[in-house]
Amino acid sequence: MTLTPPTGQEVFFEMQRIGPYMKVSALDPITLVEVSVQGPANAREVDLKKLAVNKLKLAIERQKKQ
Length: 66
Description:
Layout: E1 12-18, E2 21-28, E3 33-40, H1 45-65
Antiparallel strand pairs: 1-2, 2-3
């Protein structure tokens, strides 16, 4: 699994620790689709970002079908 952006450009990330959790928001600047995921605060940053990118890809695909 790679950290390839959905539209091939870039993805903006925001990470915020909330108690024992880490909230990761991912924004695609081309489609302006934003998603967020939560995971344990001790999880690897790259794993949380991969999860957010995968969710972002699904959200963009859903938007295209509408």
